[in-house]
Specification:
Elements (H helix, E strand, L loop, with lengths): L1 H14 L5 E2 L8 H6 L2 E11 L6 E16 L2 E6 L1 H4 L5 E9 L5 E8 L5 E2 L14 E5 L5 E2 L1 E4 L23 E6 L14 E10 L6 E3 L2 E2 L5 E5 L9 E4 L10 E9 L4 E6 H11 L7 E4 L2
Length: about 290
């Protein structure tokens, strides 16, 4: 436990000088502050009846985790397909920075259920679908967020690419960021929760069964990292290595086992493939000031 804590502290120190892709340059901002504006909790609105009253009270119910990816000048929200494939719309309270005032703000990002794009490979009788979803979205002028940057190999900005063209391999060290559903205490504001671990298994075939007696698709990896409810859709990143302090997106969480402390992830190649499909679709969603 102490060793893992030291790894995370070292990572935060090293990465404090590096930045995720941004709409503006940020000076002297910690990596964790940046991640607060790049990772979000997905929610839906549920109406409940207040006891001893006729009033209907709306409340936000958590569904999972999502994160931003920037490709060229187009912005995307990425999550796990099973998180967003619901009969209701989703929303997220996104932390951003007002470029004019320099202050941090929260905006409401509305994500209609018909705006999501899924990976092109579908499930069959033995195998689950590729569990990745993406939505191209517009953005509010004069608001800055953070995003992992995806630049194709033929792009002039390929040196800024943060979605590798090789999937992670065991025992690559990783960090996972997500929003816990219940960790035994309450938070006044949303903050992503950090876990460290390693990529522990890669099979290259349909090998891991996770639900309904179906196999996870062949590229899925097993990670040895302590998980919690709410991690589905969480980004999986690299840990720092000597001479390489650039944040890189390695995959996203699609399933967890809280008893044995492991998770299953879709690798970065599946995220890139889904984004390539989403590029052909119009932007969806709407952003408004949150009160």
């Amino acid at each position: 436990m102490v060793f893992c804590q030291r790894i995370v502290i070292i990572w935060l120190i090293i990465f404090s000088a590096a930045m995720l892709a941004s709409e503006e340059k940020t000076e002297k901002e910690s990596i964790y502050a940046q991640l607060n504006r790049g990772i979000m909790r997905l929610e839906h609105t549920e109406v409940i009846y207040q006891e001893n009253a006729d009033a209907k009270i709306p409340r936000s119910v958590p569904d999972g985790t999502a994160f931003f990816v920037l490709s060229g000048d187009e912005l995307y929200v990425v999550s796990a397909r099973h998180v967003v494939e619901k009969p209701h719309d989703l929303h997220a309270r996104v932390q951003c920075k007002n470029k004019k005032t320099g202050y941090d703000e929260v905006i409401l990002l509305e994500l209609p259920r018909n705006g999501w794009v899924y990976h092109g490979e579908y499930e069959d009788v033995d195998t689950r679908f590729v569990d990745v979803a993406a939505m191209k979205i517009p953005w509010i002028k004069d608001r800055a967020i953070k995003a992992f940057r995806y630049e194709p190999k033929d792009s002039n900005d390929y040196d800024k690419n943060q979605l590798p063209y090789e999937d992670p391999e065991p025992p690559d060290p990783i960090l996972v960021f997500g929003f816990p559903a219940d960790i035994g205490f309450q938070l006044l504001e949303q903050r992503p929760f950090t876990r460290s671990g390693v990529v522990s298994m890669k099979t290259g075939k349909e090998f891991i069964k996770i639900d309904a007696n179906k196999f996870a698709e062949e590229r899925c990896c097993l990670i040895d990292a302590k998980m919690f409810a709410g991690n589905s859709g969480s980004p999986v990143m690299n840990q720092p290595r000597l001479g390489d302090s650039k944040p890189r997106l390695l995959g996203l969480v699609i399933a967890t086992n809280n008893i044995l402390d492991f998770g299953i992830i879709e690798p970065v190649s599946r995220i890139r493939e889904t984004l390539d499909i989403a590029k052909k679709q119009p932007a969806s969603g709407q952003m408004t000031d949150y009160r």
